[in-house]
């Protein structure tokens, strides 16, 4: 299946209409900037009120690189990659996964660059933030240099969940170094023990940058029907439509819900999710609706404390899949959504040209068409003490503020809502300007969330065209800052 929506934006649009399920979009590190990945996941965490995660993925396909146009990659031979007999291809894989490790490290540092209580809103001194609680990350790597701090405040979870699917040595090292959860695809207990052994070996070769132990999830593919005969018949029908039996790197279970649950302990799964097969999914092919990847454990919740530290001398421990996990459903109670604005009729964008709609354009006394005034609502607050000093003023980062503002603008017949983007915090003499209303969400991500709770208002945001350069090189023009 081809033609998909952006995973991060789709997850952000889903967030306002869900209340407890974790949302973990796949975001490649090969064709994106870590700064924007970090702020995008932070924004998803705010919109979902602490349910965001990030599945880290590397793209080594030459045609995908050509689609994006950011870099050129040589063609990879999957067989040689698995065997590891081609030094050039092995070096490319190691470089791509090394870039992914750096991207995860940058994201984690940016998530920690704001302390939890950095926003003070001190009316007497006119300070919106305590700049002593915002920190530069000063990451310098072989592939990019990122100073920070993040433009988005520390997310509700502190550190959103990082997930990595791994099958070989190099991806195992990525997971051990920076992921919270590694997904594996064993076919039996013996294969699972071999994978755990490889993870233990990886733990001796790399330094783990996460305080908590790595959790191991087993993934399975399931097709569920009311009876086992019906499940097998559906699988046979889908295979026949595809032209050959479907194969997968995971265990394939076509059975009843009770039978799937009974087989789970044999796969060493402490917890799992059941994904029902979709009837009539013949058009999906081998990777269509009848393929449902199920995670073997529920999503972790809870925030990490500020000031995450790395201790290279601390031994890395791999959590066995048989170890019980903490309660996966711990999260803050979610407030009910405001009723969506439902005006009597939608208010389309009007033009001065001839219209074929039932509502003719207004004319003046001489019959000339009147020019339509278009109204744009701009989210206020920057450098405006009179806004944030009001005790009734809402948070500048909470999604409820954006939802309330957008729905009011929609009820007021505004044509569109405009959000500005900033890639850095204002500075004066090398210090963060603490009088600003700082702490912005990722523009596209927050607009995706707003789109899910509005009906007809246009949504417009600014995007920088030089975004790649801004995070891959130091800004030579900035003033030197005092040492912290």
How would you describe what is shown here?
With 484 residues, the chain is of the alpha/beta class. It folds into two domains: 313 residues, Luciferase-like domain (TIM Barrel, Alpha-Beta Barrel); 97 residues, no CATH class. It is 29% helix and 13% strand. It contains 13 helices and 18 strands. The strands form six sheets. Strands 1-2-7-8-9-13 form a six-stranded parallel β-sheet. A three-stranded mixed β-sheet has the order 11-10-12. Strand 7, helix 6 and strand 8 form a beta-alpha-beta unit. Helix 1 packs parallel to helix 2, helix 5 runs parallel beside helix 6 and helix 6 crosses helix 7. The protein is globular, with a radius of gyration of 25 Å. It starts with 6 loop residues before the first helix and ends in a 12-residue tail after the last helix. About 20% of the residues have low confidence.
Question: How many structural units, i.e. domains?
Answer: 2
Helix content: 25-40%
Uncertain residue ranges: 268-312, 319-359, 468-479
**CATH fold call of the largest domain:** TIM Barrel
Approximate strand percentage: 5-15%
**What best-fitting shape do the alpha-carbon axes yield?**
globular
| CATH homologous superfamily (4th level) name of the largest domain | Luciferase-like domain
Secondary structure class reads: alpha/beta
Number of helices: 13
Major sheet characteristics:
6 strands, parallel
The radius of gyration is: 25 Å
Mean pLDDT: 76
What is the highest CATH level, the class of the largest domain?
A: Alpha Beta
């Amino acid at each position: 299946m081809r033609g998909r929506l952006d995973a991060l934006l789709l997850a952000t649009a889903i967030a306002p209409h869900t209340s407890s399920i974790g949302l973990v979009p796949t975001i490649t590190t090969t064709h994106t900037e870590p700064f924007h990945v970090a702020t995008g996941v932070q924004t998803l965490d705010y919109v979902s009120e602490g349910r965001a995660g990030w599945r880290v993925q590397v793209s080594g396909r030459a045609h995908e690189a050509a689609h994006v146009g950011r870099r050129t990659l040589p063609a990879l031979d999957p067989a040689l990659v698995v065997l590891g007999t081609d030094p050039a291809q092995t070096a490319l894989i190691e470089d791509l996964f090394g870039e992914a490790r750096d991207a995860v490290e940058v994201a984690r540092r940016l998530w920690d660059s704001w302390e939890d209580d950095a926003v003070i809103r001190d009316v007497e001194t006119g300070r919106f933030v305590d700049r002593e609680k915002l920190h530069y990350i000063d990451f310098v790597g072989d592939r990019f240099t990122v100073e920070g701090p993040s433009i988005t405040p520390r997310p509700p979870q502190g550190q959103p969940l990082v997930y990595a699917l791994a099958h070989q040595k190099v991806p195992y090292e990525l997971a051990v170094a920076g992921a919270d959860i590694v997904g594996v695809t064993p076919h039996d207990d013996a294969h699972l023990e071999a994978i755990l052994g490889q993870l233990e070996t990886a733990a001796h070769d790399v330094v783990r940058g996460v305080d908590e132990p790595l959790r191991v999830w087993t993934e399975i593919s399931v097709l569920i029907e009311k009876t086992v005969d019906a499940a097998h018949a559906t699988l046979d029908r889908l295979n026949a439509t595809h032209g050959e039996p479907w194969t997968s790197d995971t265990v394939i279970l076509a059975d009843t819900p009770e039978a799937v649950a009974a087989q789970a302990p044999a796969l060493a799964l402490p917890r799992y999710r059941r994904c029902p097969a979709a009837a009539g999914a013949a058009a999906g092919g081998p990777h269509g609706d009848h393929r449902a990847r199920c995670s073997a454990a529920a999503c972790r919740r809870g925030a990490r404390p500020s000031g995450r530290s790395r201790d290279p001398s601390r031994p890395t421990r791999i959590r066995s899949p048989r170890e019980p996990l903490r309660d996966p459903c711990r999260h803050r109670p979610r407030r009910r959504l405001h009723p969506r604005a439902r005006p009597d009729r939608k208010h389309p964008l009007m033009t001065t040209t001839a219209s074929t709609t039932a509502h003719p354009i207004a004319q003046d006394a001489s019959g000339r068409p009147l020019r339509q005034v278009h109204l744009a609502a701009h989210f206020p607050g920057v450098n405006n003490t009179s806004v944030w000093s009001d005790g009734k003023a809402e948070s500048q980062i909470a999604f409820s503020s954006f939802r309330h503002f957008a729905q009011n603008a929609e009820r007021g017949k505004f044509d569109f809502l405009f959000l500005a983007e900033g890639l850095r915090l204002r500075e004066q003499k090398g210090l963060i300007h603490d009088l600003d209303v700082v702490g912005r969400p990722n523009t596209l991500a927050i607009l995706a969330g707003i789109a899910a709770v509005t009906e007809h208002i246009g949504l417009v945001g600014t995007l920088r065209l030089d975004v790649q350069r801004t995070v891959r090189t130091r800004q030579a023009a900035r003033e030197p800052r005092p040492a912290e």
